[in-house]
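Regression check, arginine case 267:
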Amino acid sequence: LTACSGGNSAATPAPADTTAPTDTAAPADTTAPAGFTTVEEGKLHMSTNAAFPPYEMTTDAGGFEGIDVEVAGAIAEKLGLELVVDDMGFDAALTAVQTGQSDIAMAGITVTEERQEVMDFSESYATGIQVVIVKEDSPIETVDDLANADMIGCQKATTGYIYCSDTPENGGYGEDHVTAYETGAVAVQALVNGQVDAVVIDNEPAKAYVAANPSLKILDTEFAVEDYAIALQKGNTGLLEAVNAAMDELKADGTFQTIVDKYITAE
Ligand code: ARG
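Current build output:
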């Protein structure tokens, strides 16, 4: 629904005269994306928090890799732009796109109604699941047991934090029972150190952290199922349409799946 054109006055077609079939040049019929400008000419700035494997992480060489990074690079190429990755805190990555300091934010961002009020989203490109990580010998055996946790760790500003810190009436555990950490990795370290009883985080980073920490496990019961999408500044319809069109092409020609398969092995 949000993909409907019309907000962009520059592209507003003349009112259609349905009785005039000769009017074939009317811009109303074109499926080409509306025009757009970017923060920096020739570049596509992507704000992210590169501490979220396998979607975005830093390389030893000081660069960036991951599904979001490569997909954004492929989108930029389709648009004739060069991708620039701007790494910052997750909350800052959202703010940057909201205020127009970056063109897109791509960071395994969950589409929520609250966020939709302050930013626009592309079509969803992945499913994310909020899962619970605990120590192997934890008394927390199901999601329901989280109610007994003294302290839950989350990455700040994430949906995991938002759900868990909500009031018990709204399905949360209250702010007093949740600690917000700068990154998911730091939250997991707090779990290893015994400072929190559980970490609520997205499933793919959870798998990466648990694989690196034999003392941890992921509970079988899931906390929440979500959709990931690319965030754009509200009202940036031209770029939104261009991004969606590029993504459709990357899905159709197999590029998107090739990138996903490079980072996520099918179970
Ligand atoms: N999917 C969650 C959210 O949107 C967490 C995303 C965290 N991403 C990151 N790159 N650290 O809130």
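Comparison notes: The pocket of arginine is lined by residues 48-49, 51-52, 56, 90, 107-110, 128, 155, 158-159, 202 (CB under 6 Å). Residues 130 and 202 are 4 Å apart (CA to CA). No diff flagged against the previous build.
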